[in-house]
Design brief:
Shape: elongated
Distance between the termini: 116 Å
Oligomer: single chain
Radius of gyration: 28 Å
Largest sheet: 7 strands, mixed
Strand content: 15-25%
Strand order of the largest sheet: 7-6-5-4-1-10-11
Number of domains: 1
Structural class: alpha+beta
Number of helices: 3
Mean pLDDT: 76
Low-confidence stretches: 89-94, 149-157, 218-228
Helix content: 10-25%
Number of strands: 13
């Protein structure tokens, strides 16, 4: 007789039971994998959105400070200017380093300031957050009051006028000159309010005069206006050399635009659109659109012609890529062999592909800013 304690009477697992256990384990592992993947995706998306939110908040807050302190004179000079930088080279200084493959489009896909694209839902047409302002967005510049120490000479802390310029420039990053990575950078360039050469600094006197469209803002040499120094007149259009990122306010900004208004009691809203608009205040989508504010604020509407008074209200729009979106756009634009194939969902159209990736991986931010400027 077998000993009751020898173990021969215990029942072992059958093959069927082992298969059932393995199946349950596999199902549980699959559930856990899906949960981890979803959590990871949600975390990545949330982190990317927070990063874009932080970039946009910094830009909009700085714009608010600058615009609310903007100033002008009724002297016939241009004190507020906007240019739509649409085209293969982007801005006028040719600093826009276009991608070799799959660049940001220069066609109507990138220029839609009226937000009337056929792919938009009827309820989204005309909305500022759906607009597009050309290849490089707008080039915005105006005069404002700088706070604190804005000159190197004595007195070191004086509030004096400065000219500022905002623009997007696409350039290779300093560590990846071979276009292994790219960056869309929003620059805020500032012109010093006083000369620093010689022994007689001039607080409150702009080195190149009160005209932000003059040639002094586009060309400069070491012998004139200290052109080799960061912060000189050249910098309002050329914010540093191709590797100087001192004036970068935010990165991953792929579009930047504004709608400018003046107060008009004859309008139902109390505001008349002056940019981008026709003479009657209707939204316009002209590729060479620009705003030149040279008339006094009390000029009658019927005398505006092709120039406009100083804006009193500005709606600002920014489109910012998430970190994941920036990586996807960089990979799309990278010069690689074999070249990437356009996905079928974009109808083999590389331009639709670029904007499809951009829209899916970016966020749009808007803000209305009231300008308090009065003529000096």
């Amino acid at each position: 007789m077998a000993d009751a304690g020898d173990g021969f009477g215990q029942k072992a697992f059958t093959v069927l039971e082992l298969l059932v256990a393995a199946g349950i384990t596999a199902i549980l592992a699959g559930f856990i994998f899906v949960i981890i993947r979803n959590v990871s995706t949600t975390w990545t998306g949330a982190t990317g959105r927070l990063g874009a939110d932080a970039q946009a908040r910094l830009v909009l807050d700085q714009l608010t400070v600058d615009l609310q302190s903007a100033l002008f004179r009724d002297d016939g000079n241009v004190w507020f200017a906007v240019d739509v930088l649409n085209g293969a080279t982007g801005n006028a200084t040719n600093l826009w380093q276009s991608a070799v493959r799959n660049p940001k489009p220069t066609s109507g896909l990138s220029l839609d300031m009226t937000a009337t694209r056929a792919d938009l839902r009827p309820e989204d047409r005309g909305k500022l957050e759906q607009t597009r302002y050309g290849t490089a967005g707008i080039w915005l510049r105006f005069f404002t009051t700088s706070r604190g120490a804005n000159i190197a000479a004595t007195p070191a802390s004086i509030s004096a006028p400065v000219a500022v310029g905002y623009q997007i420039i696409r350039r290779f990053t300093a560590t990846n000159p071979l276009n292994l990575n790219t960056a869309y950078l929003l620059h805020r360039a500032e012109v010093r309010p006083a000369a620093t050469t010689g022994t007689s600094p001039r607080p409150g006197v702009l080195e190149s005069g009160y005209n932000i469209t003059s040639a002094a803002y586009t060309t400069s040499t070491v012998s004139t206006n200290n052109g080799a120094t960061t912060g000189d007149p050249r910098s309002i259009q050329v914010p540093g050399s191709a590797r100087n990122l001192d004036s970068v306010l935010a990165d991953n900004v792929i579009d930047f635009g504004v709608r400018a208004y003046v107060r008009d009691v004859a309008q139902p809203s109390g505001l008349r659109l002056v940019f981008p608009a026709t003479a009657t205040g209707t939204l316009s989508n002209a590729g060479n659109a620009r705003l030149r504010s040279v008339l006094p604020s009390n000029t009658p509407v019927d005398q505006w012609g092709t120039v406009h008074p100083f804006p009193e209200v500005l709606d600002v729009m920014l489109r910012v890529l998430t970190d994941d979106g920036a990586a996807k756009i960089a990979n799309l634009e990278k010069n690689q062999t074999p070249p990437l194939i356009v996905p079928q969902k974009y109808n083999a159209n590389a331009q639709q592909w670029w904007w499809g990736v951009a829209v899916e991986n970016s966020r749009v931010y808007t803000r209305r800013i009231v300008l308090n400027a009065k003529p000096l």
